[in-house]
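Morning. Coffee machine broken again, so started the prediction first thing and wrote up yesterday's gels while waiting. Chain of 390 residues, entered below exactly as on the submission form.
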Amino acid sequence: MNFLFPYMARWKAINWTRFQRILSAVAQRGHTVHVIQMPKSHLSETNFQEISVTLPANIHLHDLDLRGFHWQHKYPFHKLMKKGLYSLACVSTVKRMIRDLNIDVLLLYNLSQYPILRATSCFTIFDYADDYIDMLKYELGILRNPLLLNVGRKMLHGMAKRADLTFAVSQVLADSLDGISEVKVIANGVDLDNFKPGRGDMANAFKKPVIGFLGSFEYFIDFDVILDAAHQLKKYTFLMVGSGRHYRDVERKIIKLGLDNVVLTGGVPFHVVPSYIDCMDICLNIFKDMPVSHGASPMKLFEYIALKKPVISTRLHEVHIIDRDFIYYADTGAELVARIEEILRDRATSAMRAEAAYEYVRQNYAWDHIVNQFLAAIEEKRIVHNAKTD
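Came back before lunch.
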């Protein structure tokens, strides 16, 4: 099959999302993937920080030419503006590429791509990968109002209804699509070949014990809880791996609190991530209590577990669905301190829980397993789609 994916970021980014993971695996199985990527930008998210990456030969990257839109200029609410401009500019390009490249499957994933979905009759997937309405509330800032949010909800349901196949990254998000008859959950996962315990690359790089966090430095992560625990446990190293829009805010707070035991790495290439996790003794999946958090299928959770690390998470709806009594929970700094001390006090029990978690993830959340589900769902639906269009 030939896939077309308009991506609102740079493909060779420091941080790899579910889309790079799934579509790279799809390409490795012999399918062809064409990615229309955003031009380079001043946006600070990790998915715009590029590194050198070797891609499968059948992944083809196409930069959308947006010079006429003054792409490098900064605007109020520039993230929303840029995504909207990109999606509108994509419409004619998508239609041309579908025709010229014999595209079989168009993959869309963002509300601003609604005009693209309306403009083509190609077999289309809508991937509901985040709680877009809750994210829209944040991105709109002072412009947030019921009218705009209602427009967003209508676009969300419109995309889910119009698409030939709708995926959701979590059961929570799938259940939230009221009135959509068929939504298939395609969760995030982990590449078990790359995330293997005992790598040893950075075993002695940090003073033990190491309490680790991996992820984007974004508004939905509860850094206050993490730094509160670091303040109470100054003999422990708190290793925070990642970058994002709130990185400088976290850095300033660490300096203000005088937390010499907190190490910030900044963004690290995705292929180095396993080495950082492997040197952690306990891993943190700490989010703020908000809809976008409860609907997430955190990739880092599966990566922690693949390296057989004890995991402490905030109480999130989707995490509870995943959990089989192997995750520890904490919602406050005091609770987090108590769970850390509990794990370090009883290493045997935490090791057994980590082993049980690994076995469950191996059977259910390996990318190979997930990509099998992804391709099987497409093949089944395309038979119906092709029969209707013949």
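The CA atoms of residues 43 and 78 lie 8 Å apart. Going to sketch it on the whiteboard this afternoon.
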